[in-house]
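Hi Y.,

Following your request, here is the sequence exactly as I used it, all 368 residues.
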Amino acid sequence: MDNRTISAKELQDALDKKQDVFILDVRPIDQRNEWRIAESTHVDAYKRLNNGDNSVLDEVNIPSGVPVVTVCAAGKTSLIASEALRKKGIKAFSLEGGMKAWNYAWNKAEVDFSSGLKIIQVRRPAKGVLSYIAGSAGEAIVVDASLDPEVYLDLAKKNGWAIKYVMDTHIHADYISRTGELARASDAKHLFIDKAKVDFQFTPIASGESIKFGKASVEFIHTPGHTWESTTFNVGGQAILTGDTLFVDGIGRPDLKASQEEVIEKAKNLYRSLRRLLAFPSNVLVLPAHTSQAIPFDHKLIGEPVSEVISKVTVMRKEEKEFIDDVLTRIPPTPPNYLTIASLNKKGSYEGHQPAELEAGGNHCAIA
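Below is the corresponding structure, written out as tokens. Let me know if you'd prefer a different format.
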């Protein structure tokens, strides 16, 4: 931190330690609605600040004695805001790099099972991306890695685990997968369902097959619909990592990279996949790859038992035709840059591209 800015890492640490900070988002409302910092307060000040009208900040009730962090898309307008606040005697800093930098902030939540299995949910709070590291008896797996490999390596080290396997639930279309990088950095084996059509080398695993780590196991279950290769991982019979097939408050969309005819076929497959997940015991924990909301630094797991998900996601209880009709009428807007991102993930390399530029914005994977 200098006297004018604060880095995303510094703000992340402050929120993680529950330090007092007032986060002021000065972006236009449409940008705010796309993605945000959960703990922030919003004032639509972008135009007025850039037109030299700092009086817009007079409308904000800023608590006395609490440092302020101003936020915009890339860190320029927020700098105008923080300087205006400092002229009023308020200790204010601009978030360096704005929301594009905050895209890679993260926090975590954990769940321990009596079997000795531990699952850590690694969350990117702005984009709602969830990845997982599960450990047992000194060994671990990582699912849907979306951050720098060092994040997962550090978590493994702190828990006394060696990362044995890394894998993805599907070919992601809204963020760059870091699974290949993590495999190389950790010497872990890179696994994928044998249905995956990608351009990089991996160890194929058939649906119904299990692999062991420590004293636990993970079963690969092919659950097509969101994508053709979508896979659910049954971890120790305690939790199912459902990727973008099933969320705690919605289901995956079947339309990306598909013709209208193929969308219907994918929706049929999604229906069958969800019925398969419905058959899990009611107390098994559903842990998805995304949430539609900004994630606070509260360490509360984003996951629900199967019984709770069934009660919330009513479309899962419909018959096939009604399900398909309902899904097709509620397709959300397509994610930005999804074709490029999916293509890079299929290739297994993002060389020549800036992930921060491609990934900017919220996720649009769910049908609520």
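Residues 29 and 44 are 6 Å apart (CA to CA).

Thanks again,
Q.
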